[in-house]
Amino acid sequence: MIRIEQLHKKFGKNKVLKGVDLTISKKGVFAILGPNGSGKTTLIKALLGMVIPDSGSLSVGDISIKKDWKYRDQIDYLPQIANFPANLTVKELISMIKDLRNRPGEDKKLITVFKLEPFLTKKLSNLSGGTKQKVNLVLTLMFDSPIIILDEPTTGLDPIALIHLKKIIKEEKSKGKIILITSHIMSFVEEMADEIVFLLEGKVYFKGTIEALKTETKESNFEHAIANLLTHEDA
Amino acid sequence: MLKILKYSFFDLIRSRWSYVYLLFYLLLGSVLLFLNNDLSKAVITLMNVIIILVPLIGTIFGVMYYYNSKEFTELLLAQPIKRSSIFIGQYLGVALSLSMSLTIGLGIPFALYGLFQSNEIWDFVLLLVTGAFLTLIFTALAFNIALYNENKIKGFSYSILLWLFLAVIYDGLFLMSLIAFHSYPLDSFSIGATMFNPIDLSRILILLKLDISALLGYTGAVFQKFFGTGFGLLISIIALSFWVVIPVLNIYRKSNKKDF
């Protein structure tokens, strides 16, 4: 259960979030969409406590997150850009995160799925972008938390890994978790998401199912429906 | 916090620069003892090196570590860990590994030379304590600068400037003001001015202990006259502690407010 009320945040003079209201109470996959710079990442980071909001309230599981940090144990977060400490090996990083979270993780299964065995003893600075993203996914998905947040999970993944990722997301969904995804790949969103949250100019502009979006914009194609939302605002 | 401290510490211990730093002190200690053959002279020479070099290394390592581990910090921020633990843990990791390099690097040659049988052991211990203080102070200052500056280049320049100011310029200004106002009583002014510079403070601390009045200089002499040796030592240690505590508290404060 996530509740966001009247969330405001500005960076210097740039007002990124201008009163976001969002309640996610039921389980499922929620896609947070919006043009570049619409505040998707800021919203997610505010939810994680990485960005401190100017005003408004945020609560996860009915507990306000202000000045709290224990709630983050319920969240698995995949950051947008995977950059890790350079002189650690993949194996060390995984065991370190497990140690820091004080929880066992299902890393073995995920390592096999993403075929990361040959890279386990390699240093993170020597990995390709796609492999780093796979490591990033393992780090995020190895814990069994009720909320999963994925910021651009498809970046750099090859088609096979993408298929695995979709399968994992579906499995996690069937376990009754709340999964938030941001992505610019519309086909991925259309396939995975139960509901769309569309951010525009720092506010929630649309929230509902893909079907509802299509009827509202009178478009049969999802990509066009999204484009329609954008042009509407510009016009 | 201890886990973060552990990981930062081991991360640094494995880095090449820690070894370079350690080797430098090993060499310095050995050469000084070999050439000097006099423990107390070696301690004085070491003091002059430590007082300038330790702050520089502390500042640079602190700033570098903060900026280099930025992505890692962001990874940690999303984990169920208290914010302040992350930054204080990293800070202590840097400061402790530097202090360790200093202690081991200087300790080995001095121990081999027979420090434990000599009377200079306490002078030497005080030297190491001062070195550790300076490391803690300047690493904390560097973390503060880095926390306030997103821009790496700016952060680096500010921290180098800070070091330059406290290590060189401050003394110059101080001396000039002494000359300019020489007809006024300057005792309390000079004591105050010393308190505001951890490098000066450390120098006086060591010289008071070594009891070499010729090297004390004006401030040192005033200090000794004003406080006496024992009390002077105590006052300067307390002042140094404040220099550690205040920047660390500010790391705590700032890290809880910052956006990432």
Automatic annotation (TrEMBL), chain A:
Outline the extent of the ABC transporter domain. 2-226
| InterPro entries listed in its UniProt record | AAA+_ATPase (IPR003593), ABC_transporter-like_ATP-bd (IPR003439), ABC_Transporter_VariousFunc (IPR051782), P-loop_NTPase (IPR027417)
Superkingdom of the organism of origin: Bacteria
Keyword Nucleotide-binding assigned to the entry: answer is yes
Keyword Cytoplasm attributed: no
Matching entries from Gene3D superfamilies are given as: P-loop containing nucleotide triphosphate hydrolases (3.40.50.300)
Q: Keyword set for this entry?
A: ATP-binding, Nucleotide-binding, Transport
Single GO MF annotation: ATP hydrolysis activity
What is the protein name given in its UniProt record? ABC transporter
Q: Which organism is it from?
A: Patiriisocius marinus
TrEMBL record, chain B:
Official protein name in the record: Uncharacterized protein
UniProt keyword terms in alphabetical order: Membrane, Transmembrane, Transmembrane helix
Source species, please?
Answer: Patiriisocius marinus
User: Is this entry keyworded Membrane?
Assistant: yes
Highest taxon of source? Bacteria
Which regions span the lipid bilayer?
20-36, 42-67, 88-112, 124-148, 160-184, 204-223, 230-252
